[in-house]
Write a structure and sequence with these properties.
alpha+beta, seven-stranded mixed β-sheet, 23 strands, about 15% helix, about 30% strand
């Protein structure tokens, strides 16, 4: 990918918002000692939904301490470039990688550009804008890189089973917008686009719904069974630009890791790569998970994937492949939290090790209420919180303390909890 060194400038106004699009709260993020100040990006802002000429609004992907990827979609035949900077001074980043992707049922295509920006400063915020056919069609947008310190706090959205296009999904997006200030990452637990993970469903039910939020919060999805229904999740792979640290080329972006502050995050694939593991496969996902868990010294280890082991949904028992391939590794290396979806509800279980309660074990959560129709809930052993409700989660890690909330429609807090590792230090 093409890249350019971006120098630090000083910067000027928050992105305007328009229409009914859910838009990020414009309050300053928590700067603290680990993050640079919230920048201002100029008076002439063009906010999501306010102009024609962009089929897909810019979205941030794969942030690192010194870079980020930005992608956006334009009409077939259009040219486009990304500009990044501060203080109203922008450098152009040539978008070297372009894909022509369908986005309607009748085969209309858009040009999906993506550009990699390198040479940024850790933990700093930057302004960016997109130029299409020599016109600036998106401006006043912001991205922030990964902080350098392992002590930096991190705030995350978590959501699963969401991209249905339902009214509940759209209402929940509005609630998320009210909580978006200072959110650094967005994790998903699969089934991102219903009903079959098609190109059009990703466009209509994901990128259109969250276009304002995606301009500044990098999303780190995991695939679910519905995403796999179209070409073995090819639309999912084409639309997201994720870390490529899987061992096998055909598994890249299906599962990956991200280090952010005190956390190592594992975005896993509980579909084809996990279900087709062979004993003689030396590049399997479980062996990769083992190596990635063994090598990290991060105090917090969190995994997200689609199919749960623990759940009270009466018609869906524990996933056998998760049980066989992943749970022993989570127990061995002390995974702190397993975030799952698949069952359209919210459930939190007591921390578990070797299928028994353990205050230092893995906290299992089913968060599959992002927008699709809800499921019946049954009781399950060690279930400590359960709600048949559309919801998303906010997770915050600050030092040795993790706080979590499940938030439903109407901004109702469904569940709150803490995991305190301070006594371990």
């Amino acid at each position: 990918m093409s890249s350019i060194l971006i120098f630090l400038f000083a910067c000027t106004s928050d992105p305007a918002t328009s229409g009914d699009d859910p838009s990020p709260n414009s309050d300053d993020v928590d700067t603290g000692p680990f993050y640079g100040p919230d920048v201002q990006c100029g008076d002439d802002t063009v906010a999501p939904g306010s102009v024609e000429g962009l089929i897909r609004w810019p979205y941030v992907q794969n942030i690192t301490q010194d870079g980020a990827t930005v992608a956006w979609g334009v009409p077939d035949g259009a040219t486009a470039s990304l500009e990044v900077g501060r203080d109203g001074i922008y450098e152009t980043v040539a978008a070297a990688d372009v894909m022509d992707l369908p986005y309607t049922d009748d085969g209309q295509t858009m040009r999906l550009f993506h550009a990699r920006v390198d040479g940024l400063e850790a933990g700093e915020q930057y302004c960016y804008q997109v130029r299409v056919d020599d016109l600036i069609l998106a401006s006043g947008l912001k991205l922030r890189t990964v902080p350098a310190s392992a002590d930096a706090p991190v705030k995350m959205f978590v959501m699963g089973d969401f991209g249905s296009g339902s009214e509940a999904q759209r209402q929940l997006a509005q609630v998320m917008a009210a909580h978006a200030d200072g959110v650094h990452l967005w994790l998903t637990t699969g089934d991102n686009a219903y009903g079959s993970g098609t190109y059009r469903e990703f466009q209509d039910n994901v990128f259109d719904v969250y276009k304002a939020l995606f301009t500044q919060i990098p999303v780190y999805p995991t695939p679910g069974n519905h995403d796999y229904k179209t070409e073995q999740a090819q639309p999912y792979l084409d639309n997201f630009f994720l870390p490529e640290d899987a061992w096998r080329d055909d598994h890249k972006e299906r599962y990956y890791t991200l280090d952010y502050g005190p956390m190592r995050y594992f975005g896993l694939d509980s579909e084809s790569p996990l279900q087709l593991v062979r004993d003689d496969d030396e590049q399997s996902e479980p062996l990769w998970v083992n190596a990635k868990l063994a090598e990290t010294d991060k105090p917090w280890k969190i995994a997200a994937f689609h199919r749960p082991y623990y759940s009270g949904q009466p018609e869906r028992g524990p996933d056998v492949f998760v049980n066989i391939h992943l749970m022993p590794l989570f127990d061995q290396y002390g995974l702190d939290m397993a975030l799952t979806g698949h069952n359209h509800m919210y459930e939190r279980f007591a921390p578990m090790t070797d299928k028994a309660p353990d205050p230092n074990g893995t906290t299992w959560i089913v968060t599959g209420g992002g927008g699709q129709s809800l499921y019946e809930i049954g009781e399950a052993e060690h279930q400590v919180a359960v709600h048949q409700a559309h919801h998303f989660m906010i997770l915050e890690i600050n030092g040795c303390l993790l706080r979590g909330r499940a938030i439903g429609l109407g901004d109702v807090v469904l569940d709150e909890f803490e995991i305190d590792r301070c006594s371990d230090e």
